[in-house]
């Protein structure tokens, strides 16, 4: 058997883009115009892209050459007939229109204006308004176990008004899962992404045709090739025909359709795809569509795949409903619109565990009752996790629902007493971090950045959060430092061009400061003297072209912190993403308590923000990682466009001592998927972790 094309790569094997009852074009289909020879057969779209030319002697083309943006309403009419079973006369060529939405699916439906006020405001009559689902989208394919899937639905009424119903209760949902398709390599268990087409031609057991990767297919090829030879040697095996022969006269008409009967639906099962057996099956260039048995698994808006879903496709059905009054059931209107996914994949294995490196300066291990662990981590806010910034990272791995699980897994594994996070959105703090951390025994406080221009929408602004184990510490004091307000207090109405200074310095960054008090006893049932510690968490401005802004924010932070701790002799813990490398002015100021007057940032200060000789502070700060290794880590930020150390844990050396730190992941681990973030790393930053001891 020739190995000229022994496998196919497709979203839904083999070489099909949907197993569902209708097909909504996606971004994967934008590869070229629709071929004229397909138009006569597009009416058979009942099982996704089961496009087969019925004209004799016509050579089939790959299915993904269709451009949905050039599909005419003739196609939509045929698709509607496929979905509803009712014939719709296609308009002539002069009246055809391009579909306005990616994923557009024609499914007529109706909705009522909710009340008379809506009628008056919208100028409509009381009663149903014709609408249709124009887009049903399941973002971030493939689905991952434990990662909640949230559909996005858009409706459009007769007047062209677009309605997004993602958060409203005017839709009904049904989720199904298909048959398992797992890699046939022993002890693999991953969902299939490849399928051997020779197995289909030879009618080998279908479960033996699936593989999760080219690597596993190559490893299995010797045994798998023997399977082909054995099947071809069977007495009733059809004669092999060259893969590249034109199947002129031997195509059989097929009617691939989505079969769903009322009785099957009531039983929660339905079947899609499937083509009749053919004595000419060996000659086909593309195998018949795989049959799939769909079992209903949920009726909620969202669905979270489980371990049992690995290797299964998921299918979502959605239909608009008319809202009802009281306890009356809602009324379904229009047709159920369907959207499927590729096979569910397991959550990737975590990176290799990082090693704890002890401080070589210590001669003995401190009393564990005097030690505590600190985590500093920029979690990469959802608003910044875009394909434009991280083009090497799959969209599914940029999805917040995916990344948040990895972030929480890492926080749990580090098991720190104090956790300082940056780039935490307000809505994520309220809906995810605070409740999830509470389950793990933490309490937390939060401060959002000040960005008035963005309206302070919690979905558009991030900030800093501090969590602490509530059985170890209690918060006694809490403060927020807003650098915008500090700039106003320093320069507003001052001599010179103070407005330019304010515009330059007002970037919305903040620092969150709290005073924690220990709760533990001495282990003998006696309460020891309660020790307190000041914890500060900040995120300094990011832009490399604004080194003066970074320096000014850091200097203001030091001035405020020394007011809090020096007079009270409080230990200080300063964590943050300072967006500054060890060669920067910020690092020099923090580590040496002053900045030399001839530093480039000061000599290039055209606005007169700094006063020569004032760039000092009195905080005896030491970097935890530099104390252990002698230098800072090579990188804590590792992206496709920058690598370097930006994140630090500082402590006051007259009150605290570092006992050890977690080593940084190797370049080999970080570059496994090009850079960060990736399928194994949730953020573009690495968490820095240190253990400290009270002196």
From TrEMBL:
SUPFAM superfamilies: DNase I-like. It comes from Hirondellea gigas. GO terms for molecular function: 3'-5'-RNA exonuclease activity. Residues 1-21, 85-100 have a biased composition (Polar residues). Gene3D superfamilies: Endonuclease/exonuclease/phosphatase. This is Carbon catabolite repressor protein 4 homolog 1-like. Residues 377-685 form the Endonuclease/exonuclease/phosphatase domain. Residues 1-70, 82-101, 326-363 are annotated as: Disordered. The lineage of its organism: Eukaryota, Metazoa, Ecdysozoa, Arthropoda, Crustacea.
